[in-house]
Structures are given as C-alpha cells and as structure tokens.
Sequence to fold (254 residues):
Amino acid sequence: MRLKILGCSGGIGGNLRTTSMLLDHDMLIDAGTGVGDLLVAELSLIDHIFVTHSHMDHVSSIPFLADTVGWMRNKPITVHATAETIAILKEHLFNWLLWPDFAQIPDAKNPVLRYETITLGKTVELNGRRITPLPANHVVPAVGFRIDSGRASLVFTGDTTTNDPLWREVNRVDNLRYLIIETAFCNSEKDLAITSKHLCPSMLAEELSKLKRPAEIYITHLKPGEIELTMREVEECAAKWKPRMLQHSQVFEF
Ligand SMILES: [Zn+2]
Ligand SMILES: [Zn+2]
Fold:
C-alpha cells in the first residue's frame, strides 16, 4: 500500500496545500486543495474518497473533481463519510447553490457521485486495504482513520482536540507504525485551539502521553505563518516522541 501526501497544511499559498492523501492510485483520504496537483488522467482514476469531516480545507476538491472527471468515467466516485457529514455535504455544498448535486447528474441512476455511510469502528475493506473510522473531537461531526495494509497500520487523527476515545482505539492497533496527528495552532493560541477544537503543542504532548505503543509521529495541519514557531514548540513540548513535520509529497509504503 502506498500513501502519498498531497496536502498537509492548514492553509494555502506557495507550495502549501490543504489536507489530502492519495492511497494507491484510486483512493483519497480527504480532498483538500492538494488534489488539484494531480494530472487529469490521475484524477479520473479516483474511485473512492474517505472524508474525515465537512470543513472546506478537507472537501474543497470534491466539487471540482466531480465536474472535471465525471464525463470520463463509467462508474460513480464513492464518497465515504458518516451520516452526519453526508447530510452536511448534501445540504450545504452539493445543493445546486454552491455546486450542482452530482449525485443527480447526469441522472440519479448513473450519477457522477454517490455516498456510502461509514460508522465509527466499522472497517471498510477495498482490495485488501482496510479503512476504519476512529473517534475525533472537533466542532463538526468528524472522524480519524486507521489505514491497515495487513502488514502495518497508519492512523490519521483528522482534525481533533483532546480525545480520550481515540487513544483507547489507537492503543489497540497491534500493527501500528505511523501516527499522523494535527497541531493546528502555536501555544500562544491555545484558547483558539480549544474553541476551534484543534491542538496546540502543549495539548499535543498531553495527548501523546496517552499513546501506549511505539509509532513514528508526524505533525500535520500547521497554520501558514506559524509553521516554524509551532514546530519549535512541538519539539520542546513533545521531544520524547521525536515528532517530525509531515511533508508535502511524502510517501508512506506499508
Ligand atoms: Zn476542521
Ligand atoms: Zn482542517
């Protein structure tokens, strides 16, 4: 299994892209602005999109993807999300006002887009790749994902603040190799991190102290303009876990 980071920033500008990962050639984990770097031929191969939550930085490329490749494909793109997230996408994004409802285009029987409901803890298996939604604690309904190749697992927290139920699940992942965890704000913005249900470096350290398994730790969702400051603080607060910054175009093979 090959996971390529298409975007891992909290914002855009220069070479910054918002959250998206390409799993093999046919699956996306979130669909932020990083998806726009793929060639049209690559975009046309995307069959599945797993969505952590409805925020724009995680879904903004779904409308353009549907519009760009719909006519090239003979089967729908499946959006896998919780019932709550699907309801938000239908009501607030694919509502004919912000964007057409591609679940009805060209017609409801052969749509460009279809939805599949996912449930916390229930694994979806696609060609031997196992994706399991994990608990997240964010301002809208949200999940993280365990991605399990059989040989090893990568856990992606999605957007979350302090989250004890997540650690109960992560501590059960016997083949855990990688943990990608957000740290959206620097320590001086801790109040904002709490209000917007994200993490800052001191909160990250508290969260990592609940992890009972060894894992390579990667930090994502850093705010543009505060990247160096936040990573310095991460290294101070959470040194014993040796966290590294997740990189655009980084590839995980597992
Ligand atoms: Zn969010
Ligand atoms: Zn986000």
The first strand starts at residue 2 and ends at 7.
